[in-house]
Design brief:
This protein is an alpha+beta fold. It is about 40% helix and about 15% strand.
C-alpha cells in the first residue's frame, strides 16, 4: 500500500478486523494427543521422511522439481529474473514448494536496495520462523530464531512494503500456520521405515522367528509373581526390539525355548510396506505408479498418472505459490502475473492439442475469441489486415 493509499484509508476509516487466536510459538510441536502417540516434531519427522524414507523423498522431489522446472508464461523480465534466481544456491520455486509440502508454510524475505526496490528473494527455513501476533491476534512481525539468536522482521517497512511473504497451506484449526503433507504422512512413514528395519534385521539374523519360553519342572510348580516379573523385565531389556533379534539366550531353572514357526507369508512385510508407501504417495499428491510402486504399470496408465500429477498437484501448488508472490511483490510490480505456460508442458501436450482442435473447429468464433479461449493475447488490427 502506497503512502497516499495509507492516508486515504486513514481518513475514510477501515472495517475492524475480527480478532484471531494467538497460535503457539511453533506450529509443529504439539502436546501428546493421547493413545501413546509421541508428539509430532518437525525436524525429527523430516529426518525420518526426507532423509531416511525413499518414497517420501522421491514424492517431495517429484513435485518440487516439477514446479521449479516448469516453463513460465511471458511476464515482466525483472519479475521473472527475481523468481527464477536461486536462493542460497537452491531454486527458489523448488525450495518454496518443498517447504509447503513438508512444513505447510513457506517464508520469503524480500531483500531491497538503498532505494527500496526488491532485488532478491530469500527463502527462510519455516521451522525457524514464528509469527508475533498483535493485540488483536493478527500478525504484527515475524521472529527468525537460529543458533540461540532471534531476529525480528517487521511486517512492513517504512514505505508500507512487505518485508516478508508468508505462503501457507490451509489449516482448519490454526489462524496463523498452515498444515503440511508431512504431518499426515508421518504415521505411514513410521510404518514403512519400521517394516524395512524389521526385514533388514530378519535377514541379518537368518530369518529366525520368535518363540516362547516354557517353564517345566518335575513337581509341576509355577513361577512366582516376582520371578515372572523379573523374567519379563530381563527379556524386554535384553531381547526385545529389532536390534536384539537373533540374540542367544542362556536358560536355566527349568526354562525351555520353544520356537514358534512362522510361515514365509507371515514374515513377508511387502504388503505392509506397499500399503504404507501408497499412503505416503497419497499424502503428497503423487500417483503411486510414478514412484515405482506395484500396480498396473502400462504406458497408457503411466501417461494418465503423469497428467494427473500435473493437473491435481503441480498446477494447483504452483498457482498458490505464484499468487502469493505476486501479491507480496505488488508494490514493485503492480501488474505482476506469474503462471505456468501449459503449452510448453510435455505431460499436457495431448490436452492442449485437443483444445486447439476443438477451438479451431468452432467456426462461429472469430480469431480474437479463439485466441482468448486458448489463453493467447489479443493481436492488433483485424484478421484480414494481418493476412
Amino acid at each position: 500500500m502506497s503512502f497516499i493509499d495509507t492516508l486515504v484509508a486513514a481518513f475514510k476509516g477501515e472495517s475492524a478486523r475480527v480478532p484471531l487466536a494467538r497460535g503457539p510459538v511453533s506450529p509443529w510441536f504439539f502436546a501428546d494427543s493421547g493413545g501413546g502417540r509421541a508428539p509430532f516434531e518437525y525436524n525429527a519427522a523430516v529426518r525420518r521422511a526426507y532423509l531416511e524414507n525413499p518414497v517420501a523423498q522421491r514424492a517431495v522431489r517429484l513435485v518440487a522439481e516439477g514446479i521449479g522446472g516448469a516453463p513460465l508464461k511471458p511476464a515482466d523480465s525483472k519479475l521473472l529474473a527475481l523468481v527464477s534466481e536461486t536462493s542460497a544456491g537452491q531454486s527458489l520455486l523448488e525450495t518454496l514448494a518443498s517447504h509447503l509440502l513438508l512444513h505447510g508454510n513457506a517464508y520469503v524475505q524480500v531483500l531491497k536496495d538503498a532505494r527500496g526496490r526488491a532485488v532478491e528473494l530469500f527463502a527462510l527455513r519455516p521451522e525457524r520462523v514464528s509469527i508475533i501476533a498483535g493485540e488483536n491476534g493478527w500478525p504484527s512481525a515475524y521472529a527468525y530464531d537460529v543458533s540461540g539468536k532471534r531476529l525480528l522482521i517487521p511486517l512492513l517497512d517504512e514505505d508500507a512494503s512487505p518485508n516478508l511473504i508468508h505462503l501457507r497451506h490451509f489449516h482448519p484449526a490454526d489462524d496463523h500456520y498452515g498444515a503440511g503433507c508431512l504431518s499426515a504422512a508421518d504415521q505411514a512413514v513410521a510404518i514403512h521405515n519400521a517394516a524395512a528395519e524389521w526385514n533388514r534385521q530378519l535377514l541379518e539374523n537368518a530369518a529366525r522367528p520368535s518363540g516362547a519360553l516354557v517353564y517345566e519342572t518335575e513337581d509341576g510348580s509355577a513361577l512366582t509373581g516376582d520371578q515372572f516379573e523379573r523374567l519379563k523385565a530381563e527379556l524386554a531389556s535384553a531381547f526385545a526390539g529389532a536390534g536384539n533379534a537373533g540374540r542367544p539366550m542362556v536358560l536355566e531353572g527349568g526354562l525351555k525355548w520353544q520356537t514358534m514357526a512362522l510361515s514365509p507369508a507371515d514374515m513377508d512385510f511387502a504388503t505392509l510396506k506397499a500399503a504404507a508407501a501408497r499412503d505416503i504417495a497419497l499424502a503428497f499428491g503423487v500417483p503411486p505408479m510414478l514412484l515405482g510402486l506395484p500396480g498396473d504399470s502400462t504406458y497408457a496408465n503411466y501417461r494418465e498418472a503423469n497428467r494427473a500429477l500435473w493437473r491435481l498437484t503441480l498446477l494447483p501448488l504452483a498457482a498458490k505459490i505464484f499468487a502469493g508472490l505476486c501479491e507480496g511483490l505488488s508494490p514493485w510490480f503492480p501488474e505482476a502475473d506469474l503462471a505456468v505456460d501449459l503449452d510448453r508442458v510435455p505431460a499436457l501436450a495431448e490436452d492442449r492439442e485437443r483444445l486447439w482442435a476443438q477451438v479451431s473447429a468452432a467456426d462461429f468464433l472469430d480469431p480474437q475469441e479463439k485466441r482468448a479461449l486458448l489463453g493467447l493475447g489479443e493481436t492488433k488490427g483485424t484478421f484480414h489486415e494481418q493476412k
